[in-house]
Amino acid sequence: MNQTAMSALLPAHSDGVTLCLAELLQYKNQTVRWLPPAHSIWSQLNGQHVSRHKGRGMNFAEVRPYQPGDDIRSIDWRVTARTGKAHTKLFTEEREQPVMMLIDLSSNMQFGSQLL
Q: What pTM, to 2 d.p., does this model score?
């Protein structure tokens, strides 16, 4: 989108420094086009993108000796072979990761030389 077309979509009172709701929505629509495709190979790997492949939703915590009533699917066969006694893997449930955003709204950050 060129500068003239962009200016036509923004309110006449826009100074290019502070943004109103219409400007924020316009910029949101532009950034959506920059996102990677939903079926990218990168979405299947660990990293910033959420994978479409569902796992157990559990993080490994520790190994402890097997106790009656433990799920036999969680037996750690390598530790069992090494020690000669059955051991079970323990997991902790994954929780949502907290997100913290720090935004500097001080007057020093309110600058701009042109509209995007």
A: 0.37
Residue 43 and residue 17: Cα distance in Å, rounded? 35
Kindly state the DSSP code that residue 90 receives in the 8-state scheme. Answer: E
| Tokens matching residue 30 | 């532009």
Which of 10-19, 38-47, 74-83, 101-110 is predicted with the least confidence, judged by mean pLDDT?
38-47
Burial of 13 (0-12, 13-18, 19+ CB in 10 A): exposed
Q: Quote the CA–CA distance of 49 and 36 in Å, as a whole number.
A: 9
Compare 82 and 20 and report the one with higher pLDDT.
Answer: 82
Domain boundaries, the chain: 50-94
